[in-house]
Specification:
Length: 258
């Protein structure tokens, strides 16, 4: 999260499903009932621009907004005005009217977004993207800074058996784990569901660890269910920190330590 967003972002709002405010505009988090807009959220904000701008200098120079409107959306919906999907999403999450204005400056075209009574330039849209990612359970570092083409292939291989794990599956799992009806969880936000599922997963893992304690060495460390990562790296499942690996591996321990 960049410094400008850090100064205005209220993390507590995400816990209780409250909107984040930027330049007087309220950005509301998505609820799990908003399936149509959850799909749009992923299409609009979670594509790593770095995956293309490393290979194409024209993309490298683009703002994410211009990249979204001229590269990503036209490839998803050929022949459809790319601004329609973004405008629809922003109007839904801000409850304000949204419009775009293009201004020619030399050889460049600058895009301004008007939301309610506020205007946002292309760089400020990057802040909007960070806010929307954060409040819906993701973050910009995961999407952009951690992206690695080779590790991405490894990650897809690891997830090859769970590619069909859909949003529907997550919702029913969420309801089942907390013994709730679908109607009772409909107003939960994506953020709330993500962290509730992770907390329950940590608790169940803790219970599974404590069952066989009589059969493990005295050096075995049980991870408490109240200790779980707030942020998981993009490649945590395929990459391990070298120092942590050495610390856990028996190959690097003396005979007295084993």
């Amino acid at each position: 999260m960049n410094n400008e967003v850090k100064q205005i972002y209220r993390e507590g709002n995400d816990i209780f499903g409250l909107p984040q405010v930027y330049k007087g505009i309220k950005f509301h988090p998505l609820k799990i009932v908003d399936l149509e807009y959850i799909e749009k959220f992923h299409e609009l904000f979670t594509y790593p621009k770095i995956s293309m701008d490393q290979k194409d200098p024209t993309v490298f120079k683009m703002s994410y907004l211009k990249f979204l409107l001229t590269v990503i959306l036209p490839s998803i919906n050929p022949g459809v005005n790319p601004g329609i999907k973004l405008r629809d999403f922003l109007e839904f999450t801000t409850k304000e009217d949204v419009s775009f204005e293009n201004t020619e400056v030399g050889d460049n075209v600058l895009i301004t977004i008007y939301i309610g009574n506020s205007s946002f330039n292309e760089m400020e849209f990057s802040n909007i993207r960070e806010i929307i990612l954060e409040q819906n359970g993701s973050f910009i570092e995961y999407i952009e800074e951690e992206y690695n083409e080779q590790l991405e292939k490894d990650l897809k291989w690891v997830h090859r058996d769970s590619e069909n794990y859909t949003m529907k599956d997550q919702i029913f799992l969420f309801a089942s784990m907390y013994s709730k009806t679908i109607q009772e969880i409909a107003d939960c936000t994506l953020f709330q569901m993500k962290y509730a599922l992770e907390s329950m997963s940590s608790f169940l893992e803790f219970r599974m660890q404590t069952i066989p304690l009589t059969n493990v060495s005295e050096n075995y460390v049980v991870k408490s269910y109240i200790q779980h990562n707030d942020r998981k790296g993009r490649y945590d499942e395929v990459v391990e920190d070298k120092d942590e690996f050495i610390k856990k591996s028996p190959y690097f321990k003396s005979d007295n330590e084993k």
